[in-house]
Amino acid sequence: MRKRDLTFASAVLEAINAILAIAYIGLQIYYGVYYHIEAFKFIANILVLVLVYAGITWVQHYPEKLNHIPPEVCTGNIRRYSLRMLMFVKFVFTAGLLVPCVCDVAGIGIRDAYSLIMIGLILVVSVYYEYRIIQEIRSMRK
Questions:
Q1: How many beta carbons lie within 10 A of that of residue 90, not counting itself?
Q2: What is the pLDDT of residues 49-68, one digit of tens each?
Q3: Which of 28, 73, 105, 108 is the most core-located residue (most Cβ within 10 A)?
Q4: Strand ranges (DSSP E) for the chain?
């Protein structure tokens, strides 16, 4: 996220996201070493987090690419909603990966529906903010 778009709340959420990502990586390494899991498996899990996290962070620098709109249109509320959507999707994704990892280390089983719930949360956040963005674009055209 660019410095001009950074607010106190977004900085705090970005810091929490980074802490969650670091905790996930640490727990993956712990889980892999403690339970003698092949290095490829937990490195692949870490790589998924790193690539998605880096991808969302890159799009946060260029939110106009999210909706394929010109940078001149991606201002004001449209930019704000795009950045919020990306921030919350990144948070739900990172927290969604961390919860099963913590449960695995604690020896607690999670039901299969958990993945669907996380996907549903990401979809709800995305649809809500995309709806708001579409409303803003329509109001600008009037």
A1: 23
A2: 999 999 999 998 888 888 88
A3: 28
A4: none
